[in-house]
Each structure stands twice: as C-alpha cells, then as structure tokens.
C-alpha cells in the first residue's frame, strides 16, 4: 500500500522502513492528506537539509546526471578521512564542469597546522585520484570557519551557473549546506535560500539569486571509511570533538605503538627518537616491545586495545602492514579517519591499518 504513495515535495516513493534513505517518512505522518517525506519536511519547516545515502548503482546515476549539467561541482571531503572521502571517477563523470574541492572539519586539526601545506597536499592527493580541482578550500562547517569565504568563492566560480554539492556520507555535506543556508539567509548577492524546495527525484535544490540552484545530492556510502568498520560508540571515541593535541613518545628501535586496536606503528630502525601522535585524545596509545606486539594484539584486541569494542571485533578487518623509510626532514604517516604520526628523517617504520583503510605519507603539516 505505502509503495503507491509519493512525496509531494520530491516525488520519491514513500517508505517507512529505512530512515536515511530516500522517501523515508515516519509511519505517524502517513495519516496526513498530503504526504511529505522527512527530508522535504525538514527543509520546508526548518530550512535544514538531511543527508540520504545511496548504493553504488544509484550514485552512478547521479554522477551521470552531473555530466549532463552545465554547472560548478563542489566536492566536499573530510580532511580527517581523505582516503575514505574520494568519489572514484568523479572527474570522468563531471565532464567539462569545474570542480572545487572543499576539505571540511579543519577545526579538528591542531591550531599550528600549516593550512597552506595542507591545501597543497590535498591538491596533490586529488591529482593522484584523477581529480583536477580548480580550487582547494579548507573549512569547518560546524564551527563556521572559512565558510563565508567558501561561499564567496563558489559565487565567483559558478559564473551564473547551478552548483552541485557532492560528497560521500559523513564528510559533513549537510552541515556545510545548512551553514550556507544560515549564513546567507536575508542577504543579497550571495546565495539566498527559499524554504520551498523545488526538487527532482533525489536532489534537493536551493534557489540562488539568479534563478539558478544550489543542489544537494545524496551521499554515497564509501566502503573505505573507517567509520563503516566500527560501531557507533567506537566512532564517537575515534572522532575528535575538538582540536587534537600532540602526544609525544620517545621511542627506541624495535618498539611498537598501538592506537587502540585500530592501528599500529612499529619503529624498526633509526636510533632513539621522538614520534609525535595526533589522534583523538580519547584513543588510548599503548607502547610495547615489537617482539611482543603480535601477541599483545591477539590477546587484548577488543579489551585493553580498543576500539574496536568486543561486539565489532569479529567483523573487523585484519591489520595490513605498510613499510616506510622516511627520507625527508619531517613526514606524517596518515591513518585515514584516525589521525597521523609525525616521524623525522632516517626512521624506518611499519604502519598497520585495517584492510581497506588508507595509510598515506605526506610532508609534515606541523
Ligand atoms: P553528511 O553525511 O556528509 O551530510 O555529514 P553530516 O553533515 O551529517 O556530518 C557528519 C558528522 O560530521 C556529524 O557528526 C557532524 O557533526 C560532523 N561534522 C560536520 N562538519 C564538521 C566540521 O566542520 N567539524 C567537525 N569537527 N565535525 C563536523
């Protein structure tokens, strides 16, 4: 019965089973004469967008549609989970449309982070993923940092065209768009919004001054995100809530650091030296001898070494080893979605992350 109903806002088929998916409507709202899905309801009454997620096939469809538009594409990624944030093939799909890359959540980084270096690192990473953004911006949607600047830049670069905002789930796409709505409501010459959604099937359109639109596209669930391997509880533990602080360890050769049970760093060779860890303060770091590390992990993963907690341990991917010889003055080894460690020249290390979660090397940001 409910499959015959459609949302009067976006036209999606109404369903009551899966919150966060297209057309979701609480059962209690079905009594109404005109049925509106929860997403449209929120937009209409609270000026607030809500992310809905899609599977790969539906998302490919969206990407195809982007290629047919004449627009500016804004790709939001989580700078704390760069590896898990990419939309593979985006450049190919967008055709000739320019892409702005926005790294969100900069508020999580220590204040001393070199933002210029971070932006150029991001640009380089993007190139390696086949993406050629015309600009790279760093913002905090939650704190409002550089959001106004981002809006202005979008306004400049869109050249009177529509703007499509794309990103995978959890990068902060909704938070960013809601900020835009907040920041620009009641202003002229910047993006203005209207509480009445004019929507296509699965995209929410926010009217701009000139009759064009800012379009919120659904997010895709990216399997590479650390967030998908752990429980909601554990995600809270690993996600920093505020600026992360450096934790310094003086390590001898053949010592190991465990970051909960999620990741590990073996310091193999290079004499006694400091290793600086930048992770959420709520993640415990355990130091041990390398020769005991495997055993320690086997016995204590899910217990002393957590997250992951016991309940997710069974489905948790194995840790994969990546070796690095540090050849430049100071480098960061980034555990995507978790944080990074800074190691200086001459060190020989092995970094472990769950299979599927990226480990990357970059010039130190601090
Ligand atoms: P979406 O799935 O891409 O729409 O992401 P959301 O907007 O729902 O945000 C996902 C999570 O990231 C939420 O817990 C947000 O509170 C958080 N978040 C979003 N933007 C920021 C930010 O700028 N800084 C921080 N620290 N957290 C953010």
UniProtKB/TrEMBL annotation:
Q: Which InterPro entries match?
A: G_CP_dom, GTP-bd, GTP-bd_ribosome_bgen_YqeH, Mito_lipid_metab_GTPase, NOA1/YqeH-like_C, P-loop_NTPase
Q: Which CDD domains match?
A: YqeH
Domain called CP-type G: residue spans: 60-223
- UniProt-listed NCBIfam families: GTPase_YqeH (TIGR03597)
Q: Any idea what this protein is called?
A: Ribosome biogenesis GTPase YqeH
Organism classification: Bacteria, Bacillati, Bacillota, Bacilli, Bacillales
């Amino acid at each position: 019965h409910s499959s015959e109903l459609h949302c009067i806002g976006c036209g999606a088929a109404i369903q009551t089973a899966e919150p966060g998916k297209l057309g979701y409507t609480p059962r209690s709202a079905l009594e109404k004469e005109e049925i509106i899905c929860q997403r449209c309801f929120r937009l209409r009454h609270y000026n607030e967008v809500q992310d809905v997620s899609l599977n790969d096939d539906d998302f490919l469809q969206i990407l195809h549609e982007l290629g047919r538009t004449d627009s500016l594409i804004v790709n939001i990624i989580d700078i704390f989970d760069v590896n898990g944030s990419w939309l593979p093939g985006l450049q190919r799909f967008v055709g000739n449309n320019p892409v702005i890359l926005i790294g969100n959540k900069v508020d999580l980084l220590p204040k001393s982070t070199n933002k210029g270096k971070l932006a150029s690192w991001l640009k380089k990473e993007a190139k390696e993923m086949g993406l050629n953004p015309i600009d790279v911006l760093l913002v905090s949607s939650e704190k409002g940092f550089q959001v106004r600047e981002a809006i202005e830049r979008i306004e400049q670069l869109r050249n009177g065209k529509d703007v499509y905002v794309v990103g995978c789930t959890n990068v902060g796409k909704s938070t960013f768009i809601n900020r835009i709505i907040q920041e620009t409501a009641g202003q002229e010459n910047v993006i203005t919004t209207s509480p009445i959604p004019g929507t296509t099937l699965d995209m929410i359109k926010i009217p701009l001054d000139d009759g064009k639109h800012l379009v919120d596209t659904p997010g895709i669930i990216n399997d590479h995100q650390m967030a998908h391997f752990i429980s909601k509880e554990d995600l809270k533990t690993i996600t920093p809530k505020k600026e992360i602080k450096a934790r310094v360890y003086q390590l001898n050769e053949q010592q190991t650091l465990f970051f909960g049970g999620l990741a590990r760093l073996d310091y193999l060779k290079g004499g006694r030296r400091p290793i600086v860890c930048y992770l959420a303060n709520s993640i415990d770091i355990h130091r041990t001898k390398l020769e005991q590390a495997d055993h320690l992990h086997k016995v204590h993963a899910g217990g002393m070494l957590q997250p992951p907690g016991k309940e997710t341990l069974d489905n948790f991917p194995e840790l994969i080893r990546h070796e690095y010889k540090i050849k430049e003055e100071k480098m960061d080894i980034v555990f995507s979605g978790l944080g990074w460690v800074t190691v200086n020249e001459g060190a020989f290390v092995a970094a472990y992350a769950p299979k599927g979660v990226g480990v990357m090397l970059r010039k130190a940001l601090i």
